[in-house]
Write a structure and sequence with these properties.
This protein is an alpha/beta fold and 178 residues long. It has a single domain (2-177), classed as Cytidine Deaminase, domain 2, CATH 3.40.140. The chain is built from five helices and nine strands, in the order βαββααβαβββββα. The chain has helices at residues 7-20, 53-58, 60-73, 99-103, 162-177, and strands at 2-5, 26-33, 37-45, 77-86, 110-118, 126-128, 132-137, 140-150, 153-160. The protein has a seven-stranded mixed β-barrel with strand order 1-3-2-4-5-8-9. A hairpin with a 2-residue loop joins strand 8 (140-150) and strand 9. The chain is globular. The mean pLDDT is 85. The structure holds zinc ion. Zinc ion binds at residues 83, 85, 98, 101, 113.
Length: 178
């Protein structure tokens, strides 16, 4: 399984993560899927980002209302959800799934996790360790990892985001011109 992030989805995830930092953001991802690829077109944040993570995740009525609204207003499907892990105290945030993340992971969906930490220097965007996307924006270091659950097993999957990598090249070009 591979997860393709569109420009819209990439920007949506970044803005959502940075907006609520140091709290954690939550939302759903819309797009479509084939047997071995999931295309994520949009990230839609839940309005209740300031509420505790677990409340949002186990509110299935809310998720169902959102999914129904998506189905009746767009040609996209709800292909999964996303949330961020923010730096808490001295320990750096990681993209590892927590116990709760695993517990509430729905079969046949993608779960995207963004880890956000403070960073001193800008860093270009690129892929690290098994298809995780990593980079920095305005003093925040951000890592984006994707997981997929099938046959009751959660596996890390590669993210493909040509826009993010293009973003890096553009930035290097503009530095070179100076
Ligand atoms: Zn989590």
């Amino acid at each position: 399984m591979e997860v393709y992030l569109s420009e819209n989805a990439f920007i949506g995830l970044l803005v959502s993560t940075i907006e609520v930092y140091r709290r954690e953001c939550f939302g759903i991802i819309l797009g479509h899927s084939t047997s071995d690829k999931v295309f994520v077109e949009f990230a839609v944040p839940y309005q209740t980002a300031n509420r505790k993570y677990r409340e949002v995740h186990i509110d299935w009525n809310r998720s169902q209302r959102v999914e129904e609204a998506v189905r009746s207003t767009t040609r996209w499907e709800c292909v999964g959800d996303y949330h961020s892990h923010a730096k808490y105290g001295p320990s750096r945030a990681t993209t590892q799934l927590s116990k709760e993340d695993k517990q509430y992971f729905k079969e046949g969906t993608v779960g995207i996790v963004m880890a956000v930490n403070d960073i001193a220097k800008p860093r270009p965007w690129g892929y690290v360790k098994g298809g995780t996307l990593s980079g920095a924006v305005n003093g925040y270091s951000i890592r984006i990892a994707a997981y997929y659950k099938s046959n009751d097993q959660i596996k890390k999957t590669h993210i493909v985001c040509p826009y993010a990598i293009g973003f890096m090249e553009k930035r290097q070009d503009s530095l070179r011109e100076r």
